[in-house]
Amino acid sequence: MSLNLGQLRTRVERLLQDTDNRRWTDAEINDYIFDAQHEFVRLTGYPLLTTNVDLQGLVAEYDVPTDLMDIQRARVRNRAVEIPIISPTVLDESSTFLNESVDADWRSQTGPIRAVVLDHQSASKFRLFPIPAGNIVSTVTASFNATTTDIVVSDASDLTVGMYVGGNSNIPEKTAIASISGTTITLTKTTTNTGAVSNASITFVSSNVFSNYLLQVPSTDVDAISGTDILYDSGGFFQGTIVVLPSIELQGTKNPPRDALQTLANVAGGTDVPIIGSRFHEALVFGAVERAYLKENELRNVQKSGAFRERFLQFVAEARREEHENRIRRVGGANRVRMKVSRRWV
Q1: For a designed S-S bond to 272, which of 149, 183, 254, 266 qualifies (C-beta 3.0 to 4.6 A apart)?
Q2: Which residues contact 27 (CB under 8 A, 6 or more apart)?
């Protein structure tokens, strides 16, 4: 059974023998419950959250999404292609990484992405190595005749051969730039329009965002079993004529709020619910009681606080033991045979 904030607070007040709020106000107890949830999540590393960060050309650092307490995993968006997460020391002490050179001043090195760099686990920013060169995405206006491979764009200065084209219903799926001559762009496929088109919005997306070494197909460790990874196809940025911009998918511990369990608007009515699983809601009761007794700073109550602290930590230990790995993740847990792969960084 799931417990909401009001039910948790009632249980805390009963254990404290203070249902009339003579020693602890509702607001105080709410804060203790919020703090207990935050500590539980921090100690267990659950629940997990996955979010996307859109990429921009020549941008080295990005803010870690505020919804994440840490970053445990990074991968190419919508692909089972993981991106190594490394520390600056790895690059400081290496001349090569993923079979490609590392410059002495690697922080300004540009090229296809090979890794995510974190200074420490709780860093507020992460760095891409190398920095994606040039424009990853460029949107311009274009004019073209019926069923042609040549289009005339308003500005071709940010475009390069190999970029994929989309964002217009007259451009076939997985069309790329074959050549550029001034503002005339030759495409790899013929447009589908039956009449002339003018001032159409066209989006171009780089096909060289991630390193080819990063995007190798890993071998499986079981014969005749296909791995979950697939060869990265830059055309996968496009679904029909809709552009899906390049991004990195980050997974980490969900960062709980400090002024609510989940939704601030539901705190006043006591209907807010924890973000942790219902089987561990009782831990928040013990965590809140522990904090309430510590407030009085009397030896007897400090001893009581310690007892409830032990009960809280028992739930933490159970969560870390029983839910130590999301079972659908490749890196551990009770994975099925078909999901086992071996990756070789060469």
Answers
A1: 266
A2: none
In this structure, the answer to whether residues 117 and 172 fall within a common structural domain is no
Q: Return the pLDDT at 215.
A: 65
d(CA 85, CA 285): 36
| pLDDT tens sequence across 329-339 | 444 433 333 33
The rounded Cα 298 to chain-centroid distance in angstroms is: 45
Does 142 reside within a domain? yes
Which two three-digit tokens encode residue 301?
């109550």
Q: How far is CA 104 from the centre of its chain?
A: 29
Q: What is the three-state SS of 218-250?
A: CEECCCCCCCCCCCCCHHHHEECCEECCCEEEE
Q: What is the largest CA-CA distance in the chain?
A: 86
Same domain, 78 and 220: yes
Q: What is the pLDDT of residue 290?
A: 93
The pLDDT tens digits for 252-261 are 999 999 999 9
- Beta-ladder partners of 200: 142
For 112, the 3-state DSSP assignment is coil
Does 341 map to a domain? no
**pLDDT tens digit sequence for 119-160:** 988 889 999 999 987 778 888 999 999 999 999 999 998 898
